[in-house]
Amino acid sequence: MIRCERDDDVWTVIIDRPEKANSLTAQMLGELADIAEAAQDARVLVLTGAGKIFSAGADLEAARAGLATSPDWERLSGALSALPCLTIAALNGTVAGGAMGMVLACDLRVAVSEAKFFYPVMKLGFLPQPSDPARLTALIGPSRAKLLLIAGQKIDAETAHGWGLVDRLTTPETLMTEAQTLAADTRAATPDHAAAIKGLLR
Fold first, then answer.
1. Closest residue by Cα to residue 49 from 17, 77, 20, 10
2. CA–CA separation, 93 vs 172, rounded Å?
3. Which of 17, 76, 117, 190 is 20 to 30 A away from residue 26, measured at CA?
4. Which residues of 174-200 are buried (b: 16+ CB within 10 A; e: fewer)?
5. What total number of domains does the chain contain?
């Protein structure tokens, strides 16, 4: 359900449960967090999904069993944020709920134009992951963050790009090529140089 493909120094992590909108079980969430914690030697980590949806967040049955409040969500986003390498969310489709946390924790976000973005914590009665509001506000500002988290608004990819939530828009056919293009300079640099520049931007 979670695949990690390693091509030299590039780790491509794929959420592969398209028949269930790439929703995450507890095991899948734990695997993602384990991979993020283990990727210390990667030069680039690309996070993407199989099919036409990036991830619908927690699997409904798993959420009812407590996954929605699992500390592994924050473990995953914290591990991604702490990596010294470049992290790219290559969004092959809609991002919903808890899946937003891992996307916000990446350095860059590239999305297909069909993608939608929503985080319905107010409607569902949950709090967002602890670090998500600050990361979201840093990207799009406090009022727009409130539109997503408090007003529960769903936005399209063009709006997300205009707000700064997404850095590039592309097509499904060119999504991974765009991610590779963004990673080119980092791959050409030494790991220490890339990590030092990323450190200055924290």
1. 17
2. 9
3. 117
4. ebbebbbebbeebbeeebeebbeebee
5. 1
The whole domain housing 195 covers 2-200
pTM: 0.95
Secondary structure element (H or E) that encloses residue 175, with its range: helix 175-188
Q: According to the model, what pLDDT value does residue 68 have?
A: 79
Structure confidence by residue, pLDDT tens digits, 113-128: 999 999 999 998 888 9
Amino acid at 21: A
Task: Give the tokens for residue 97.
Answer: 């709920």
CATH number of the domain bearing residue 163? 3.90.226.10
Partners of 86 in the beta sheet?
Answer: 44
CA–chain centroid gap for 171, Å, is 18
